[in-house]
Amino acid sequence: MPPHPVVPEMPKHEEPPHPAVPELPKHEEPPHPVVPELPKPEVPHPAVVPELPKPEVPEHEQPPKPESHYPEVPAMAKP
Q: What pTM, to 2 d.p., does this model score?
């Protein structure tokens, strides 16, 4: 087999040096004012919430009860 021809080395592509990027001055934020902690008002929670008495509704003022959509099923007679 004939010897491979010697491939001449290609000259490397020289990149121009990148221009130095000047550092931008950091944005200085003004210091935040210190917010004083507000004192929490102490609210004593009652251990037991007293149940409110339910107002008695007279029978004639009570809302009508919804009628059942299903007819009453007679109880199965035991054999």
A: 0.13
